[in-house]
Amino acid sequence: MGMRGGGGGHGGGPPAFRGVDIEAQKRLNAQAPKIPHLGARVVALFRPYTGRIAVTALLVVAGAAIAVIPALLVQRVFDEALFPLSGGGPDLPLLWELVGAMIGLFLLSAALGVVQTWLTSTVGNRVTGDLRVRLFDHLQAMELGFFTRTKTGVIQSRLQNDVGGVSGVLTNTVTSILGNAVTVIASLVAMVIIDWRLTLIAVVMMPFLVIVQRRVGQVRARIAGETQESLSELTAITQETLSVSGILLSKSFNRQRTESARYGDENVNQVRLQVRRAMSGQGFFAVVQVMMASVPAVIYLVSGYFVAGGADTITAGTIVAFTTVQARLLMPLMGLMRVALDVQTSAALFARIFEYLDLVPAITDAPDAIGVEDAPGPVGRIEFRDVVFRYPDAGPDARATLDGVSFVAEPGRHVAFVGPSGAGKTTILYLTPRLYEASGGSVLFAGADVRGLRQESIVDHVGIVSQETYLFHASIRENLRYAKPEATDAEIEGACRAANIHHVIAGFERGYDTVVGERGYRLSGGEKQRIAIARVLLKDPPVLLLDEATSALDTVSERVVQDAIDAAARGRTTLTIAHRLSTVVGADRIHVVEAGRIVETGTHAELLAAGGLYADLAAEQLAASRIIDAEEAAESGRSA
């Protein structure tokens, strides 16, 4: 009834061992972070549910105690109702009373168990749900840098595996400890009441059973650990090969059979481990069963000697009642033996969760932060003053990503940044809405330092279109409404017309209700980019940030998307990072970035005339373009 290995109505037979390698789990527990006042913080999670917990504890104690009483009634059933010691036939009225009382106790115990299970499940899962949402909310508040330096799988593990791991602890461990302890104490008390001499014999043999059971558990746990690793490998293969990217890769290299063979080999290993797991310890189980059956047999033997010696306190009812109670003792004892590991494991999981909850976002609003609308300057004006930026995890001797960057973008103007890869262009873009925090200097938005503005307010005034467009596995309409949930169909259509994508969507069988697939794979690169632009237009921000929005597109798609970008940028302050210089020829100002510094500034014509890095980049791209044109012409000639 909601208790693992607890004091429910378990009789003989092997316990249900958990699929955990005990030694490996202990090593993992030892690596858990040290969190001050961990116990008090865990207890605090339960405070909203104190009343239900108190009722649950009473039900556990009552249920465990009541479960022992029928065994005591067995003695009266045999010695007073079935085979009265005074002689004569069975006392049927008394037998009816005793049997009725036993059935009533069974019903009461079952009812208490149902209520207890509901309460423990409700409390445990609600606390787990509260913890999961709290952790998710906290992660949402973390700065962008946290996610760039932390593996997605690690974050997912904290949310799913760690929080999921404590779910069972929250639901079962406390009631298991309490129920098992009460069952053990009540059973021992009942055994002493029935016959203290037989109790000594049974208790002396109990350690042998526990030792054998523990050995079986360790053997099975080791194999269970290997089985779980194999299952993880199967899952990894599935995720790698059956994702959209994985399928494209295997099909493009015609490696489907190889992937199937790899999956098949691991599946064979999994089957082998499952068979080993099923068969492991069968010899031990046989010994356990013999020993468990031997305890009552020894009791019968000793009782025979007591009776032969003239002891009148050993009756049939005494023997049956004693063996009935004794049979209930092993499982709770095994459960209590596992409590130490359970508590240690749960503490480690909670420590890992609280480690993330204790993370302090590197970027937070100042207590007196204001909104952009209250800033002194015009909305859309962006200024960098001697901005320096280093990543938090960069070494002390590492070169700064940005070093003394200064520029001004006036409202409604188009400012572009070009330069070699790794020069720091994207960092400039992300510093503008304070997705990153400047290490030195100042970033001003609407005339105010971004550190004095509310982050929400800055982001509300900025629209970002990146090179890697992200679309949800949902309809086009739902993806567009992510920017403005209350947008009308007319507003959505208007944004798509401005982004030069409405006619394409209208041509789909389901129009705006077309599901784009995982990461938008059902659409072309150009279509995804234009939907992303439409999404930003629907938000209608005064500032537009474009991070190489056309670099991954072919020439035709680039031209169409560039037209959409030009339309979107009209009347807005636009900061553009460009790989292809052809996309920024018309920019009001072009800054050339190299090694974290702005080394050249001017218009397209001025920079070409200067003959510096920009001119070199332009010459390289022109040469590359001519080579591509020549190759395409040659291919066309061969086809003809």
Q: Sum up the overall morphology in one term.
A: elongated
Q: Taking strands numbered 1, 2, ... along the chain, how are they ordered across the largest sheet?
A: 6-7-8-3-9-10
Largest sheet: 6 strands, mixed
Distance between the termini: 80 Å
Structural class: alpha/beta
Describe this structure in words.
The chain has about 650 residues and is α/β, with parallel strands linked by helices. It contains 22 helices and 10 strands. The chain has helices at about 20-30, 40-45, 50-65, 70-80, 90-140, 145-150, 150-195, 195-240, 245-250, 255-280, 280-310, 315-325, 330-355, 425-430, 455-460, 475-480, 490-500, 500-505, 525-540, 555-570, 605-610, 615-640, and strands spanning about 380-390, 400-410, 415-420, 440-445, 450, 460-465, 545, 575, 590-595, 595-600. Strands 6-7-8-3-9-10 form a 6-stranded mixed β-sheet, sandwiched between helices. β7, α20 (about 555-570) and β8 form a beta-alpha-beta unit.
Comma- or semicolon-separated keywords:
640 residues, alpha/beta, 6-stranded mixed sheet, 4-stranded antiparallel sheet, 22 helices, 10 strands, 9% strand, elongated
Please write out the topology.
Elements: H1 22-30, H2 38-45, H3 50-66, H4 69-82, H5 92-141, H6 144-149, H7 152-194, H8 196-242, H9 244-252, H10 256-279, H11 282-308, H12 316-327, H13 330-357, E1 382-389, E2 402-409, E3 414-418, H14 425-431, E4 440-445, E5 448-449, H15 455-460, E6 462-466, H16 476-480, H17 489-498, H18 502-506, H19 525-539, E7 543-547, H20 555-569, E8 573-577, E9 589-594, E10 597-602, H21 604-610, H22 613-639
Parallel strand pairs: 3-8, 3-9, 6-7, 7-8
Antiparallel strand pairs: 1-2, 1-4, 4-5, 9-10
Helix pairs in contact: 1-13, 3-5, 3-7, 4-5, 4-12, 5-7, 7-8, 7-12, 7-13, 8-9, 8-10, 8-11, 11-12, 17-19, 19-20
